[in-house]
Recover the amino acids of this structure.
């Protein structure tokens, strides 16, 4: 576009705010979906490791997961911890 953002905002402030809000909502939903997918992937990998007789440590799971950076989120680590506890009680 050949117009500056400030010019567009000055002429259409409500529309700009609506677009920004919609974008923010979309990004949050996408982020939550990716975290949920990572939780499912961590659970599957951890159970696969347990079935092979290998303890699913965070490092081992991080080697196998598609996006190891998602282990920094509490929800994903909580799933791993839950599987670790279930495996110990088997």
């Amino acid at each position: 576009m050949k117009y500056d953002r400030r010019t567009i905002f000055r002429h259409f402030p409500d529309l700009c705010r609506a677009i920004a809000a919609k974008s923010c909502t979309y990004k949050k939903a996408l982020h939550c979906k990716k975290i949920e997918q990572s939780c499912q992937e961590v659970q599957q990998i951890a159970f696969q490791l347990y079935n092979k007789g290998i303890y699913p440590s965070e490092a081992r799971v991080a080697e196998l997961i598609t996006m190891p950076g998602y282990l920094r989120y509490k929800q994903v680590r909580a799933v791993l911890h839950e599987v670790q506890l279930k495996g110990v009680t088997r």
In short: Helices lie at 5-11, 13-51, 58-64, 74-89. Residues 17 and 50 are 49 Å apart (CA to CA). The chain has one domain: 5-89.
